[in-house]
Amino acid sequence: MTVGSGRLDGRIALITGASRGIGRAVAHRFADEGAHLILTARTQGALEELDDEIRNATGSRPTLVPADLTDGDGIDRMGAAVFDRFKRLDVLVGNAGLLMPLSPVAHIDPRSWDQVMAVNLTANWRLIRSFDPLLRASDAGRAIFVSSSATKGVWPYWGAYAVSKAALETLVRTYAAEIGKTRVRANLINPGPTRTAMRPIAFPGEDPATVKTPESVTGVFVDLAEAGCELNGKLVNVG
Predict the structure, then answer these.
(1) Fold for the domain defined by 12-237
(2) Which of 24, 67, 152, 193 is most buried, by CB atoms within 10 Å?
């Protein structure tokens, strides 16, 4: 059984896109640090595998919520269920993301554009909308969202993804400005090149061994999730 330093002991943390990649690594790290996890992803089987891993490693029992984040009403129901059970949420990690096949801006399929915006931007707005009251009910609510280096707008063919993440950054900074006088803090993480299932879509010839693992970026998530973290409206870049 793995035991961390207890930096998140007793904290209730919801992680989206938890079944793989960075979300999966953050789930393991948060569990090691003592958090009670609410894990959401589209695939029930992948969540159950993660649940088994966390139980075997830490003895804790995550709450599993299979969900499609493009279903805004479903996010609202999730918020209501978390309120009914826990009355608060200490940490929200908006990690789920979607990268469609890369394409020139003028050739992006409208359906692909809508899907990327729905997952990368609108779903995170719906999460804020539904969970803001629960974050405010915490003694130190912390919201963390995952951005990307693509927001610089200098990578050809990344248009939809880049726009969605740039808009997400604006959304979170605006939210952070609105909660500045509360106990809630909201920040963004740009993990940089990371060995995830999304990476080969954009860089098919890349040697995965040359890219850092999802586990290597989890420390900054813990830093921003801690009750003592006072950063707000910041983008933290991971080298």
Answers:
(1) Rossmann fold (3.40.50)
(2) 24
pLDDT in tens, 190-231: 998 887 777 777 777 777 787 789 999 999 999 999 999 999
Of these residues, 161, 187, 214, 221, which one is catalytic? 161
Burial 69-103 (b: 16+ CB within 10 A, else e): bbebebbeebbeebbeebebbbbbbbbbbbbbeeb
Q: Is 160 left (phi over 0), alpha (psi -120 to 50) or beta?
A: alpha
**Residue-level pLDDT at 3:** 54
Distance CA 44, CA 36 (A): 19
| Cβ-based burial of 11 (10 A; exposed 0-12, middle 13-18, buried ≥19) | buried
Which H or E run contains 131? Answer: helix 123-137
Give the 3-state secondary structure of residue 94. strand
pTM of the model: 0.94
- Is 226 in contact with 7 (CB distance < 8 Å)? yes
For residue 19, the SS3 value is coil
At 123-157, the pLDDT tens digits run 999 999 999 999 999 999 999 999 999 999 889 99
Q: Catalytic: 161? A: yes
